[in-house]
Amino acid sequence: MKMRAGELGGVVLFFALVLGGGLIIGFVTAPGAWYATLSKPPFSPPSWIFAPVWSTLYIMIAIAGWRVWRDGRNSAPMRLWWGQLALNFVWTPIFFLGHRIDIALGVIVLLLITIIGFIMITWRQDKIASLLFAPYAAWVAFALVLNGAIWLLN
């Protein structure tokens, strides 16, 4: 898919929405003293890794969303894309502000299901959009295991 004339605005809006939303939520819900006191599994990554990983993933999520949006603004893939973004954005405040590790675990399970659904439904239409979600699925699967381990340990 080549970028058609006038589409730069759309891609910029997707970057602003996804990266901007992610940065704002990350800033407002930054892990604090509560998270520092939690018992974590030995495979818990260092805190500095999250910002570059999520920034990269948010760029990929934005591109995939823009590609699917161009093909159908009310399509099933687009609805899945919006669903994953909503679940992604609500997980952080539930976990870090609400201190609800259990509810966050349920949200991240739904998030992973939605991501996998997006990958499956876009595979035939737009392999690039589908493949852009593969690292996201892997990271969220890891985050699910981490969330579950933290829940069990605390």
Query: What would you report as the Rg, rounded to the nearest angstrom?
Result: 16 Å
Beta-strand share of residues: under 5%
Mean pLDDT: 92
Number of helices: 7
Measured between the Cα atoms of the first and last residue, the distance is 47 Å
Strands, count: 0
| N-to-C SSE string, H for helix and E for strand | HHHHHHH
Low-confidence stretches: none
Q: Major β-sheet, in short? A: none
C-alpha geometry: globular
**Which structural class best describes the helix and strand composition?**
mainly alpha
What would you call the quaternary organization? single chain
Helix content: over 70%
Membrane topology: Multi-pass membrane protein
Protein name: Tryptophan-rich sensory protein
Subcellular location: Membrane
Pfam families: TspO_MBR
Q: What would you say this structure looks like, in words?
A:
By secondary structure, the chain is mainly alpha-helical. The protein has a domain at 48-153. Helix content is 77%, strand content 0%. It contains 7 helices and no strands. It has helices at residues 8-28, 33-37, 50-71, 76-97, 101-122, 127-132, 134-153. The N and C termini lie far apart (47 Å). Its main location: membrane. One of its GO terms (biological process) is tetrapyrrole metabolic process. This is Tryptophan-rich sensory protein. InterPro entries: TspO/MBR-related_sf, TspO_MBR. The chain crosses the membrane at residues 12-36, 48-68, 80-97, 103-121, 133-153.
What are its keywords?
globular, single chain, Tryptophan-rich sensory protein, transmembrane helix, mainly alpha
